[in-house]
Structure formats: structure tokens, C-alpha cells
């Protein structure tokens, strides 16, 4: 083969060695197929041109350097355009080929290395430095130009959002990480459906009730049999016989209700199917939803994915007896929101009195969780990120109320912003000024499990009862006013009694989900209707919104899927760069003492990062608690203590209510070294 190529192309055969090199690059570097084809094409073109050009060199050296191909092409060109013109044409072609090949090599190599994460991070940091130091523009003819209007400072929150989106630090999870559970999806056979239709028809005929037709719609858990009464037959006659039909079908319980054109009989399937969360988040109904906060809760009887908008709910009450699917339903709701919204758009609060249901969501601490600022350390902050104790739950709910008040003030100052959606759009259009306190507002969804355990306290110490009353008051306040501010509540209870679900709760939670309950009284409390007591459990539920009740099989997400989902989000590269801290709620002073620590700053126990923070502030000239958080990766509480120590040391000035940044009092590192030395010698 070597002899053949050498005789045909001559010395340019050496260029063809780039082809196996390109293939090896494809294997080890995993470049694109197009890149390989491009290399092969350029190599082949260079070989052909070089072979023809070297034909003329053979005239001087008397050695056939171009091979048979070069000889044939060279002689043909000489006959067509002459020797001189052929030589110049091939020389120009060879020169252009060398330039193109060199540029392609340089550009491809540059792109490969630029796309490396560590190189990309360096570029981002350089770009930030360039942005912070704009070069002055010389005006050669200032008299002829109109003075430019001062441009509003680009919002820091918007910069962060753009950086987050454009550079792709956060990658939304894919459905591929979830379990398909294909072996647990079963369909009702046509033979079973036809058998049940005949039994229903015969049972009604035995009681002298004639029907015009019976149609069936099969779902994952139940099959809906639509019974069309014959002319002159009352609907009540069919509904009153639903228990007799249940006995005839040996199905246990049947839920009967009136439809627009028939009587619906919901009969449990002999073989029931799970509705995996993967099928819900992959469905067109969810992926193509225009809802602000879409939730894929489960599958309807006709097999469609049920998606509702939490912003229109706007708050959700979930009830159900123990082990009927309530906790799984809450996890399905949380998973839907995580798939629908990025961390910049959504923050969540989980309150878990049992201390076992929401633990995996601590993995979302820096990405999605909203927390208070009272933790003693970052470890304590992570541990308390999902409140367990009623006192901690009360603290975070009061802080959320303070957040709501701040947001309403921002909406008022923005003007013509009736809700958070309008406000955020106005902010993204750069019509609001961050130096006036405006910021991008993510939605906040608070999920509270075992609501009764937090609020139903009838005995014990007075402070315990006060905490219970405070929690109830906060929830009602948030439910009444939270919608426009982008705050939505989800509360769940396994004891749906009147003393738990009061009139104020029902009035402010118009959307309800009921899994199977103990009796019709509890069903009446939750739904203002009976039927929840006839559900068959295992995720079978009734969804009520706008006075419409719909039977749905709730989706299923297993503990291993929750773990994988939260770890996939929490363990992403770039998380520390984009979201080094959680979303901090406003600080709420203790009503009993009205203060925290009295303003005492311990300078004998300097924070280990005190010196690093001081040098960074003096070097950059920027001093704020949020700057320490994002740059040094500290929690809010710790960064606030470091800033207080910096103020006590005389490095930064006091907090200015009109500005986020503090004044830097120390101008040189030499002066700073003297201050640090003084505290070291204490």
C-alpha cells in the first residue's frame, strides 16, 4: 500500500498520515464527526495540490516528487494554460491551502481548550474584571455631539441571572435519571371490561332500570363506566343502585356521580398500574405547559397527565389517612417544580415535623432552599434548612411574612405591578433600578407536612400554645396575601377534622387534594362532598378546584428517585460559583426581647477568614455581606459576623441604609497589615 501511494502521489503521501491521526483524535477526544470529515477533506485537497505542484520541482531535481497524479495534472494544466500559468496557479492554491489548514488547526485547538471548564472559569473572571474597569472613550468632537444620558446601572441580580443562564452553570435534570417502571404499568383487558358491562346491565335490569348504552373508559386504577339511562329513567334510580352493582361486580366500593350526559360508575380495576413520575414529567401536557408553576400530579381516568398551575390554585390543601399516598403526593409536587423551574426562578421551604419525609431536600440547600439568618454556623444553617421543631417552623414562617411585606413594598414602588410576574418582567426589561432596592423575585413555595401537629396544641406550656397560634396566624396571613407576592402554600394533614381544617383555612385554600379518608364526615370537611372515603388507596385521590372534583391516580416517585434527583441538582459543577448560599429570608426580631445580641462584637475570637476577607475588601474596594457570601462561600450568618468584626476593627464603615455596599476606610495593604498585627498581638 505504501509503495502504491508513494508512486501515485509522491512525497505528499506523508500528508495522508493526518487521516489516522484525526481518527485517533475522534476516539480519544470525542470530537464531532463533522470535524473529522473536515480534516479528511483538507488533507486530501492538500495532497492533490501538493502532488501537482511538485511535478514542476521534478524538472529541476530530475526526481519525480509528485508521483503519477502530479505528473498527469501538471501536464494537463501546462497544455491548457501554459507552464508558467500552471505553476503560479498551483503555487497560489498551495499557499491558500496552507493558510486554511493552519487557521482551522488554530481555531479548533482554541475552541477545544476554551470549552474546558477551568479555562472557561478563568475567562469569566477576566471578563468580570474588564467590566468593572471600563476604559474612557475620547470624544474628538465634543461640541457636535449631544450629551449622552446616564445609563442605569445593570442590576446585579440580573447579571447573576444572565451569567447563570448563558454560561450554563446549572443544567436542569433530565427524565433519564428516573425509573420508568414499565413492568408495573398494566392495562385492563377488553374481556374484563365487557364482562363488567354485562353485569351492570343485568343488575339494573333486575331492578327494572333500563339503560340505553354503557361505555367504558379505562384508567390506571379505576375504569369509568358511563351509563346512559333509557328514556323516562331517572338518574337517581341508577345512582341509588351503585352499592348493588358493587356487590354484583365484587369490587368492594364504587363511586357514583352524575356526568353531563350520563351516570358515572367508577369501578376499581382487578390489575392496577402505577403512574411513574418519569411518564408525568416527560408528557406533552407538562413539557408544553404555559403555566407559571406547573405541577404534574398524576393521571386521569382517560390516561391523560393532570397538570395544574399552582399560581392559580393559589394554595393547596392535601389530606388523607395514613399510608394512602399523601407523602408520595407531596414529593411528586416537589419533583414537578424542580423539573419546571430553575433555582433563579424558584425557592422552596420544607417544614417536616416528623423529621423523615423531606430530609433528601437538604441537598438543594444552595440551589432551591429559602432559610432564616439566625443560624450560629454554616453547619447549623444546613441542619436547620428544613425545620422540624415548631419553634423553628414558626421562625421561618414569620420570616416569610416579612419577605411578603418587603415584596409588596417593592411592587408598590415599581408602579403598575399587580403581581410578581409583571414586576419581574419589568425588572428584566431594565425598567427598575437595583440601587433603589429592586431585585429579581423568585417564586417561593412553602410545603408543610403534618399541619395538625404544628397547630393543634390544646395543652402544655403557654409558650408552646403561643408558638402554635403564631404558626396558624402566619399561614393564614400568607394564604390571604401571598399570591400577588409570588408566595404559595401547600399544607398536608392526616387528620382532616373541623378543629384542624378551620373555616379560615378552607376559605384561603380553594384547591384541595384528598386521598382516602376514614369516613364521609372527613371527606365532607376536605371537599365539601362525600366520596373520598370510597377511594381504594395507594395514590387514588380526588382533586377539587373551582368546585369541580376529578378522580386522579397520583404519580409515584420512590425514595431512590428523590435521592438521585436532589443529588443530581445539588452536586452540579458551578453550584458554588452561581449559588454559594441559599435564599435568605429577612431577619425577624424576637418579640420578647426585641433584639439579638445587643451589638456586642467579640474581637478576641476573630473568624478564620477575617484576614482573607479584609485583604479582599481593601484590594477590590467592595464591602458588603453578600459580596463576602458569594466570593468566600460563607453562609449569611458567618459573613455578617465577619463584616461586624471588620467594622469594629475600623476597616469598613457602618451600614448605610441607602446602599448595599459599605465604605472602605483602609486604602492600602500596608495600613491593613498594621491593623491585623495589632489584633494578632492581643
Model description:
The protein has 682 residues and is α/β, with parallel strands linked by helices. Residues 26-31, 126-167 and 591-599 have low confidence and may be disordered. The protein contains 26 helices and 15 strands. The strands form 3 sheets. Strands 6-5-14-13-12-7-11-10-8 form a 9-stranded mixed β-sheet. Strands 1-2-4-3 form a 4-stranded antiparallel β-sheet. Strands 9-15 form a two-stranded parallel sheet.
Give a concise summary:
This protein has 682 residues and is α/β, with parallel strands linked by helices.
Rg (CA only): 35 Å
Q: Output the CATH class name of the largest domain.
A: Alpha Beta
| Helix/strand class | alpha/beta
Give the averaged pLDDT, no decimals.
80
Key features of this structure:
682 residues, Rossmann fold, 4 domains, 9-stranded mixed β-sheet
Summarize the helices and strands and which ones pair or pack.
Elements: H1 2-9, H2 18-29, H3 33-61, H4 67-81, H5 83-114, H6 117-132, H7 156-166, H8 190-206, E1 211-218, E2 222-229, H9 235-239, H10 242-249, E3 255-258, E4 263-268, H11 277-281, H12 284-287, E5 294-300, E6 305-309, E7 316-319, H13 326-340, E8 346-351, E9 370-371, H14 378-383, H15 390-414, H16 420-428, E10 443-448, H17 451-455, H18 462-481, E11 487-493, H19 503-508, E12 511-514, H20 520-527, E13 540-545, E14 548-554, H21 559-570, H22 575-578, E15 583-584, H23 610-620, H24 625-632, H25 636-648, H26 669-680
Parallel strand pairs: 7-11, 7-12, 8-10, 9-15, 10-11
Antiparallel strand pairs: 1-2, 2-4, 3-4, 5-6, 5-14, 12-13, 13-14
Amino acid at each position: 500500500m505504501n509503495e502504491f501511494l508513494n508512486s501515485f502521489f509522491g512525497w505528499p503521501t506523508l500528508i495522508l498520515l493526518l487521516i489516522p491521526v484525526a481518527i485517533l483524535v475522534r476516539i480519544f477526544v470525542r470530537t464531532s464527526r463533522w470535524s473529522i470529515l473536515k480534516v479528511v477533506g483538507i488533507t486530501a485537497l492538500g495532497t492533490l495540490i501538493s502532488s501537482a505542484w511538485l511535478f514542476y520541482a521534478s524538472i529541476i531535481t530530475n526526481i519525480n516528487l509528485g508521483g503519477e497524479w502530479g505528473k498527469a495534472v501538471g501536464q494537463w494544466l501546462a497544455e491548457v494554460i501554459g507552464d508558467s500559468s500552471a505553476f503560479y496557479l498551483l503555487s497560489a492554491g498551495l499557499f491558500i491551502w496552507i493558510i486554511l489548514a493552519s487557521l482551522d488547526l488554530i481555531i479548533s485547538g482554541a475552541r477545544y481548550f476554551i470549552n474546558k471548564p477551568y479555562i472557561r472559569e478563568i475567562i469569566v473572571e477576566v471578563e468580570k474584571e474588564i467590566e468593572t474597569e471600563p476604559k474612557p472613550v475620547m470624544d474628538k468632537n465634543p461640541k457636535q455631539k449631544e450629551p449622552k444620558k446616564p445609563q442605569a446601572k445593570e442590576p446585579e441580580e440580573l447579571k447573576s441571572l444572565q451569567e447563570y443562564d448563558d454560561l450554563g452553570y446549572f443544567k436542569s435534570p433530565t427524565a433519564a435519571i428516573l425509573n420508568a417502571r414499565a413492568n408495573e404499568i398494566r392495562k385492563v383487558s377488553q374481556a374484563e371490561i365487557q364482562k363488567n358491562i354485562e353485569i351492570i346491565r343485568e343488575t339494573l335490569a333486575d331492578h327494572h332500570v333500563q339503560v340505553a348504552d354503557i361505555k367504558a373508559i379505562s384508567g390506571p386504577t379505576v375504569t369509568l363506566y358511563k351509563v346512559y339511562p333509557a328514556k323516562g329513567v331517572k338518574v337517581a334510580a341508577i345512582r341509588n343502585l351503585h352499592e348493588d352493582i358493587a356487590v354484583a361486580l365484587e369490587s368492594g366500593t364504587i363511586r357514583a356521580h352524575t356526568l353531563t350526559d350520563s351516570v358515572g360508575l367508577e369501578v376499581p380495576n382487578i390489575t392496577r398500574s402505577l403512574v411513574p413520575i418519569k411518564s408525568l414529567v416527560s408528557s406533552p401536557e407538562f413539557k408544553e405547559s404555559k403555566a407559571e408553576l406547573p405541577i404534574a400530579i398524576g393521571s386521569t381516568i382517560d390516561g391523560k397527565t393532570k397538570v395544574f398551575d399552582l399560581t392559580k390554585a393559589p394554595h393547596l390543601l392535601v389530606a388523607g389517612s395514613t399510608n394512602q399516598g399523601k407523602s408520595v403526593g407531596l414529593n411528586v409536587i416537589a419533583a414537578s417544580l424542580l423539573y419546571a423551574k430553575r433555582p433563579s426562578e424558584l425557592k422552596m421551604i420544607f417544614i417536616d415535623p416528623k423529621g423523615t419525609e423531606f430530609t433528601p431536600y437538604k441537598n438543594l440547600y444552595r440551589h432551591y432552599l429559602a432559610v432564616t439568618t439566625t443560624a450560629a454556623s454554616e453547619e447549623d444553617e444546613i441542619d436547620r434548612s428544613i425545620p422540624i421543631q415548631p419553634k423553628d417552623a414558626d421562625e421561618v414562617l414569620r420570616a416569610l411574612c416579612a419577605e411578603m411585606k418587603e415584596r409588596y413594598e417593592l411592587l408598590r414602588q415599581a408602579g403598575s405591578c399587580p403581581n410578581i410576574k409583571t414586576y419581574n418582567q419589568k425588572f428584566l426589561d431594565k425598567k427598575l433600578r437595583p440601587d433603589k432596592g429592586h431585585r429579581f423575585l423568585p417564586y417561593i413555595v412553602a410545603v408543610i407536612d403534618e399541619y395538625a401537629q404544628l397547630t393543634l396544641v390544646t395543652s402544655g406550656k403557654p409558650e408552646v400554645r403561643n408558638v402554635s397560634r403564631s404558626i396558624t396566624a402566619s399561614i393564614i396571613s400568607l394564604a390571604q396575601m401571598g399570591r400577588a407576592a409570588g408566595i404559595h402554600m401547600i399544607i398536608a394533614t392526616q387528620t382532616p377534622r373541623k378543629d384542624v381544617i378551620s373555616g379560615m383555612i378552607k376559605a384561603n385554600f380553594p384547591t384541595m387534594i384528598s386521598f382516602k379518608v376514614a369516613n364521609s364526615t372527613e371527606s365532607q370537611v376536605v371537599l365539601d362532598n362525600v366520596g373520598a372515603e370510597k377511594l381504594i388507596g395507594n395514590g387514588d385521590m380526588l382533586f377539587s378546584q373551582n368546585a369541580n372534583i376529578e378522580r386522579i391516580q397520583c404519580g409515584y416517585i420512590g425514595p431512590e428517585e428523590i435521592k438521585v434527583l436532589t443529588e443530581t441538582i445539588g452536586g452540579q459543577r458551578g453550584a458554588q460559583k452561581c449559588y454559594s448560599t441559599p435564599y435568605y429570608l429577612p431577619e425577624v426580631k424576637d418579640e420578647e426581647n426585641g433584639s439579638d445580641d445587643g451589638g456586642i462584637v467579640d474581637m478576641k475570637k476573630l473568624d478564620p477568614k477575617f484576614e482573607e476577607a479584609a485583604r479582599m475588601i481593601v484590594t477590590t474596594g467592595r464591602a458588603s455581606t453578600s459580596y463576602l457570601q458569594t466570593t468566600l462561600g460563607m453562609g449569611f450568618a458567618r459573613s455578617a459576623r465577619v463584616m461586624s468584626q471588620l467594622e469594629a476593627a475600623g476597616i469598613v464603615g457602618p451600614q448605610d441604609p441607602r446602599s448595599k455596599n459599605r465604605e472602605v476606610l483602609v486604602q492600602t495593604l500596608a495600613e491593613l497589615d498594621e491593623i491585623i498585627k495589632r489584633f494578632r498581638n492581643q
